[in-house]
Amino acid sequence: MHPRIERTLIVMPALNEEESVAAVVAEVFAHLPGVHCLVVDDGSTDRTAEEARAAGATVAQLAVNLGVGGAMRVGFRYALDHGFDYVVQVDSDGQHDPRSVIDLLNELDHADIALGARFAGEGDYVVKGPRRWAMVVLARSISYLAKSTLTDTTSGFRASGPRAVRLFAAHYPAEYLGDTIESLVIAARAGCVIRQVPVSMRARAGGVPSHNPLKAATYLGRAGMALLLALLRPRVVLSYNEATS
After folding, report:
1. Biggest CA pair distance of the chain
2. What per-residue string of b and e applies to 198-230 under the rule 16 or more CB within 10 Å gives b?
3. How are beta strands 8-14 and 86-89 bridged, if at all?
4. What is the pLDDT of residues 179-225, one digit of tens each?
């Protein structure tokens, strides 16, 4: 067992993922024995919560849809309240391979946040067009802020160490792209160390993708606006408790 696994909380935001969530929870427990898994049911209208609970996960069921950022804020607060030092976000649609969680946790030896990077030499995940252009611009901008080479700043597959868990439990953004772009801007400006780990991305095990061609066409503008707003917000200063790991 990995020495950090019993202090690690796997957080899985889930919106109408009844087709895949149980299998993903089972895979998490199979590859990461001893870990605790929290599924945040983000206002689903199907049997997501029931399927997750039956598979052995703890379920936080939100009355309304808050988006990934709102769901992750619930996860970070749960981690802080229940004594977990590490949080790893895993998608409930099966795209993230739980076996890569160990690599992310190992990277926390040198960082506060470890990103699972899809464009760093592992796997064959491909994104084209405006969405890809936006990803490149965001990666270069946030790499400058973080003083680290990051190629996939919109990845939701990421691990947070004690300082980041304390920071995000109080300041995790809930708005559009806040869970990816703004959270990294907040962390970088607060002095958190951000690194990346190459990971491969799998096909969805079920459900409906959150992006379609129309959304992809507007992604570039929205991503740029999200980055601008994140930079305009006041810098978050870590309190003594947040800064002490």
Report:
1. 45
2. bbbbeebbebeeeeeeeebeebbeebeebbebb
3. parallel
4. 888 899 999 999 999 999 999 877 655 555 555 555 655 666 777 77
Unique residue bearing structure tokens 């703004």: 182
In the block, residue with structure tokens 């970088």:
188
Given a contact cutoff of 8 angstroms between Cβ atoms, the answer to whether 41 and 66 are in contact is no
- Residue from 231, 168, 158 nearest 195 by CA: 158
pLDDT at res. 190 = 93
Binned at pLDDT 50, 70 and 90, residue 226 comes out as confident
To the question of pTM greater than 0.85 for the whole model, the response is yes
pLDDT at 133: 77
Distance CA 15, CA 108 (A): 29
- Cα distance between residue 211 and residue 140, in whole Å: 23
SS3 40: strand
Instruction: Check residues 16 and 1 and name the one with the higher pLDDT.
Output: 16
Under 8 Å CB-to-CB from 95, ≥6 apart: which residues? Answer: 201, 202, 203, 204, 205
Closest of 153, 141, 104, 130 to residue 221, by C-alpha:
130
CA–CA distance, 22 with 125 (Å, rounded to integer)? 24
Beta bridge partners of 8: 86
Degrees, nearest 5: CA angle 195-143-156: 55
Taking alpha carbons only, the member of 126, 132, 142, 232 closest to residue 180 is: 142
